[in-house]
Amino acid sequence: METRDLIDAYYEAFNEGDSEAMLSLMTEDVVHDVNQGERRKGKAAFREFNDKMARCYTERLTDIVVMVAGDGKRAAAEFTVNGCYTATDEGLPEADNQRYRLPAGSFFTVKDGKIARVTTYYNLTDWLKQIGD
Questions:
Q1: Are 3 and 68 in contact (CB under 8 A)?
Q2: CA–CA separation, 3 and 72 (whole Å)
Q3: In the predicted model, what is the mean pLDDT of residues 87-91?
Q4: How does residue 7 score in pLDDT terms, banded at 50, 70 and 90?
Q5: Which residues contact 64 (CB under 8 A, 6 or more apart)?
Q6: Which of 18, 57, 76, 130 could connect to 100 by a Cys-Cys bridge, CB 3.0–4.6 Å?
Q7: Is residue 79 within 8 Å of 61, Cβ to Cβ?
Q8: 24 sits in which H/E element
Q9: Which residues contact 92 (CB under 8 A, 6 or more apart)?
Q10: Is residue 54 very low, low, confident or very high in pLDDT (cuts 50, 70, 90)?
C-alpha cells in the first residue's frame, strides 16, 4: 500500500472508531507516542490505549491534510479534533460531556507498507480550558 493510502486508511478507521482496522495497518512492534504521555510499544499497547480512548472520548477528525516524504518512509498529518469528553479519564478533570475542538498533528514512520511509528501532538492546556478545568 502506498504511504498516502496507508495514512488515509488510518484516519478513515479512526473516524469509524475501528481500532482493529487501525491495528491492521501497523507493524507488530509499532511505537506510539502522544504528548504528555508515555511511549507505548506494540499492538497490544496501542489496542489498550484505543480502548481507554473509546471509553472516555468520542472524537472525529476533520480538515485532515496529509504530507508524505518523497521516499514514502515518513508522513505527517495536520487535522482538527472535534470531540466530546464522555467519561472521566484517570488523572484528568471530571467528564460531563464537554465538547472541544483542537488543532493537532501526527508524524508517521512507515516500514514495509505498515505504520511503524505514530507520534501525535496537541495542546493539552487548550483542551483543559475547553473542558472547563
A1: yes
A2: 6
A3: 93
A4: very high
A5: 11, 77, 78, 79
A6: 130
A7: yes
A8: helix 19-24
A9: none
A10: very high
| Bridge partner residues of 61 (DSSP) | 81
Segment 110-130 shows an average pLDDT of 96
The three grid cell numbers given for residue 116, joined into one nine-digit string: 511503524
- Cβ atoms of 52 and 38 within 8 Å: the answer is no
Interatomic CA distance for residues 45 and 63, integer angstroms:
28
The stretch 54-79 carries a mean pLDDT of 97
Query: Are the CB atoms for 9 and 116 separated by under 8 Å?
Result: no
Amino acid (1-letter code) at residue 127: W
DSSP β-bridge partners for residue 74:
109
Inter-residue contact 109 to 73 (CB < 8 Å): yes
Domain ranges for the chain = 3-130
Q: Has domain 3-130 been given CATH number 3.20.20.70? A: no
Position 132, amino acid: G
Q: What is the pTM of this model?
A: 0.94
